[in-house]
Design a protein that fits this description.
By secondary structure, the protein is mainly β. Helix content is 7%, strand content 44%.
């Protein structure tokens, strides 16, 4: 993943850390000949069916399980994969090299949405399926914007957010999308709604590289109110266990000390006040998830040590324990369906735990 500073440049299409800019045409040509063209050839030679993640070797940016068996994973080069057996095997539903798919959200076992970016057309995109991912249809696109996160409270009502203050809402299952206004100059990375009225979005300002931002709505997104989130540089992920108790994770950069510290914030009043829970942990946190009001996990990467960062709490965030799962690669996303069973994903693999995150096994 690239340095987050790039996504704040206004002179170019602002791409999140996971995107690679092409600064001149010869770099692009070399990239196409050595990577994209062979990938298309390999794709043409393959047939849909069961594949291990090791055979796809794609970075996975987002995953979602709706129960212990059924889950989807999306990521780099348009990879969309599905499992019906808890990750033991995966069906390749789509791989399109010109797409970066940043987030997936299923409202039920049939209806799902994916957001991302088509770099060949320089468009932010929203995809939808009505049959569990067998077919995906683009229901929305926007020029020169990246869409980073999506959230649905039911099959009809949902939101998507991205760069350049972009907040979108649909009330008819993605047939139409309305732009909801924000006066902030920000890149939004995460969104979470506790019901159809109350939700939060988070990211970072463009005009202040050292300041994260969290916004809240209490009227389905008609208006958004800024909340104070301390000294965090970037908020990458949000999770609320109820209308009052929520968590945010990301990182804080100290340029003078050349140090990046992992950040976890908590609110007990719906975001009116956020307090820092985590100290003295180096690295960046990309994802946070709670399976109940007490038990949660946060995951990311330490670029200095080249090791994963994995944290767990069993007391609503009062204490966080560092876990060593031996992956030694960046973790982009994590989800637990209960206190024992969960998955995390990152650079080329999905891993499953059946012991509360004490150990993880690569999906085959």
């Amino acid at each position: 993943m690239l340095c987050v500073l790039f996504c704040r440049k206004k002179s170019f299409i602002t791409l999140p850390r996971r995107y690679i800019p092409f600064r001149n045409i010869w770099v692009f040509v070399l990239f196409f000949v050595l990577w994209v063209l062979p990938a298309y050839i390999l794709q043409a030679q393959s047939l849909p069916g069961e594949h291990s993640f090791s055979s796809c070797k794609k970075e996975v940016y987002s995953l979602q399980f709706i129960n212990e068996a059924d889950g989807w994973a999306v990521g780099k080069d348009g990879v969309i994969l599905k499992t019906v057996n808890g990750g033991e095997s995966w069906t390749k539903q789509s791989i399109q090299q010109h797409l970066y798919l940043n987030a997936v959200r299923f409202a039920d076992e049939k209806t799902g949405y994916i957001v991302g970016y088509n770099w060949s057309k320089q468009q932010g995109i929203i995809l939808k399926t009505d049959n569990g991912g067998i077919d995906w249809t683009m229901v929305y696109s926007i020029e020169n914007r990246v869409l980073n996160a999506v959230f649905f409270v039911d099959t009809k009502t949902g939101w998507a957010v991205g760069e350049q203050n972009l907040i979108l809402k649909t009330s008819d299952g993605g047939a139409h999308w309305e732009v909801q206004k924000s006066t902030l100059d920000a890149c939004f990375e995460s969104i979470f709604f506790i019901d159809s009225e109350n939700g939060w979005i988070a990211g970072s300002y463009y005009d202040n590289e050292d300041k994260a931002v969290i916004l809240k709505t209490s009227d389905s997104g008609k208006t958004w109110k800024k909340q104070s989130c301390g000294q965090a540089t970037w908020i990458q992920s949000l999770y609320f266990t109820d209308q009052k108790n929520g968590y945010a994770c990301g990182w804080q950069e100290d340029m003078e000390k050349e140090k990046t510290s992992a950040i976890i914030l908590k609110t007990i009043n719906g975001g009116n006040r956020w307090s820092r829970q985590l100290k003295n942990v180096n690295g960046m946190l990309n994802s946070i998830y709670f399976c109940n009001e007490k038990t949660g996990w946060a995951a990311g990467y330490n670029h200095r040590t080249k090791e994963e960062v994995l944290l767990k709490t069993t007391d609503s965030g009062a204490h966080w324990q560092c876990k060593n799962c031996g992956i030694q690669s960046e973790i982009y996303t994590i989800q637990f369906i209960d206190e024992q069973t969960g998955w995390l994903a990152g650079e080329g693999a999905v891993y499953k735990s059946e012991n509360g995150g004490e150990s993880f096994v690569s999906a085959k």
